[in-house]
């Protein structure tokens, strides 16, 4: 039986989709392990996958201030990650499936172990004329400018991985090589990367090389027997569809402020609300507001009138899949990119940057998202398109070719 090791690192949204992908591969007869942080071990095991621990934590990156400090924290993160990835792989793997974060490390392992690899990315990471780098904001610099900025962004990534790659190659008894040279070698070989988002959301750029494909989402695994908690189910039945408000793994320590904003905005807009605690620690109660913990978005979002979220890739896709309007409040990284895409597609209001979030702005956006039917119609049409896609199936076919 072919042993597949999926390697994914980061926050919940960076990891959860791979549980669904791994489950699909396991159902096809592969022996699948998912290497990630210990926090997500229950998610991995609930999907029927083998768990292999990666020791790194993203907390240092979240608390870093300034560009240099952030670069240093990121370099330390991937250096630790590389050692854990070796320990995970030596337990057995015939093929590596690599996320955006783990790919520059996994290439070294594949070279040493002489096994094939496949990229399974949740964001577009390759330079293109179509849009600027997804972590560099949403301002377009024109075709040439966007592509040049994308290439510069990859050089910055290579700098972050330099120490980790040097350590890995020494440990694996490989000849020294710079990350940029290794990346260039992968590009010349048309290394296959399948992107797990809908081409209806981000079409495949025309100037991408062969081997880069946009195939549709793979969704977080959840047991089909799972139902909504009784208290939440009763709340939903007690009145009109509420609004979801949550920020996932963002905004740690800002729960009190965000809860006050959420409650004030909901009541000003005359709407009921479901607050998801998340890392921020949102919490409020009342006849018109309920606070919940972790609930699968696939079950919760279809019951909502609208969704207020941080515009992470996974949460954005979940809202689209549910066919409900969104009010995106991007915080950092690739979130402004996804927020802008939702707005451009007509499924979301104009994004509210997290630093500019106030109760009046949120109330106004909620009123438009819920009462202007054009948002719901656009979201519904896109949901139908995404329902016909099979991102995990495309990955399965690619693995069958490699294996």
Any idea what the radius of gyration is? 21 Å
Fourth CATH level, the homologous superfamily of the largest domain: Glycogen Phosphorylase B
Q: How are strands sequenced across the largest beta sheet?
A: 3-2-1-4-5-6-7
Oligomer: single chain
Tally the helices. Answer: 15
The secondary-structure class comes to: alpha/beta
Structure overview:
With 403 residues, the chain is α/β, with parallel strands linked by helices. The chain has two domains: 3-221 and 389-402, Glycogen Phosphorylase B (Rossmann fold); 230-371, Glycogen Phosphorylase B (Rossmann fold, 3-Layer(aba) Sandwich). It is built from 15 helices and twelve strands. It has helices at 12-27, 41-46, 59-63, 67-89, 103-113, 142-171, 179-188, 230-237, 255-269, 297-300, 313-322, 335-344, 359-371, 373-387, 391-402; strands at 3-7, 31-36, 50-53, 95-98, 117-121, 193-195, 212-214, 243-245, 273-276, 289-292, 306-309, 326-328. The strands form two sheets. The protein has a seven-stranded parallel β-sheet with strand order 3-2-1-4-5-6-7, with helices on both faces. The chain has a five-stranded parallel β-sheet with strand order 10-9-8-11-12, with helices on both faces. Helix 1 links the parallel strand 1 and strand 2. Helix 1 crosses helix 15 (391-402), helix 4 (67-89) crosses helix 6 and helix 9 (255-269) packs across helix 13. It is globular. The protein starts with a strand and ends with a helix. The model has no long low-confidence stretch (mean pLDDT 93).
Short description:
The chain is α/β, with parallel strands linked by helices.
């Amino acid at each position: 039986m072919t042993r597949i090791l999926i390697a994914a690192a980061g926050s919940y949204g960076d990891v959860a989709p791979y549980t669904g992908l791994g489950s699909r591969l396991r159902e096809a007869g592969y022996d699948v392990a998912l290497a990630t942080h210990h926090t997500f071990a229950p998610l991995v095991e609930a999907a029927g996958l083998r768990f292999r621990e990666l020791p790194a934590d993203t907390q240092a990156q979240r608390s870093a201030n300034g560009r240099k400090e952030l670069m240093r924290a990121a370099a330390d993160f991937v250096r630790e990650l590389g050692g854990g990835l070796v320990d995970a792989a030596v337990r057995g793997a015939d093929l590596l499936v690599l996320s955006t974060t783990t790919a520059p490390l996994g290439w070294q392992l594949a070279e040493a172990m002489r096994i094939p690899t496949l990229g399974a990315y949740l964001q577009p990471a390759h330079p293109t004329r179509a849009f600027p780098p997804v972590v560099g904001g949403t301002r377009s610099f024109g075709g040439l400018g966007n592509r040049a900025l994308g290439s510069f962004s990859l050089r910055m990534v290579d700098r972050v991985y330099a120490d980790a790659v040097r350590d890995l190659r020494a440990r694996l008894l490989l000849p020294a090589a710079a990350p940029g040279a290794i990346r260039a070698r992968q590009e010349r070989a048309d290394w296959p990367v399948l992107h797990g988002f809908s081409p209806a959301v981000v079409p495949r750029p025309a100037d991408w090389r062969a081997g880069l494909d946009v195939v549709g989402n793979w969704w977080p695994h959840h047991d089909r027997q799972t139902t909504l908690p009784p208290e939440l189910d009763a709340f939903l039945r007690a009145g009109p569809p509420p609004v979801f408000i949550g920020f996932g793994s963002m905004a740690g320590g800002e729960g009190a402020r965000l809860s006050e904003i959420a409650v004030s905005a909901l009541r000003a807009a005359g709407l009921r609300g479901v607050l998801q605690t998340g890392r921020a620690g949102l919490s409020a109660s009342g006849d018109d507001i309920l606070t919940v913990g972790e609930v699968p978005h696939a079950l919760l979002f279809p019951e909502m009138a609208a969704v207020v979220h941080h515009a992470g890739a996974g949460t954005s896709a979940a809202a689209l899949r549910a066919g409900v309007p969104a009010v995106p409040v991007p915080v950092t990284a690739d979130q402004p990119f996804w927020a802008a895409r939702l707005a451009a597609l007509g499924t979301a209001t104009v994004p509210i940057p997290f630093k500019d979030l106030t109760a009046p702005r949120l109330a106004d956006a909620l009123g438009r998202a819920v009462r202007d039917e054009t948002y719901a119609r656009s979201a519904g049409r896109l949901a139908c398109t995404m329902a016909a896609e099979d991102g995990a199936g495309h990955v399965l076919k690619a693995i069958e070719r490699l294996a």
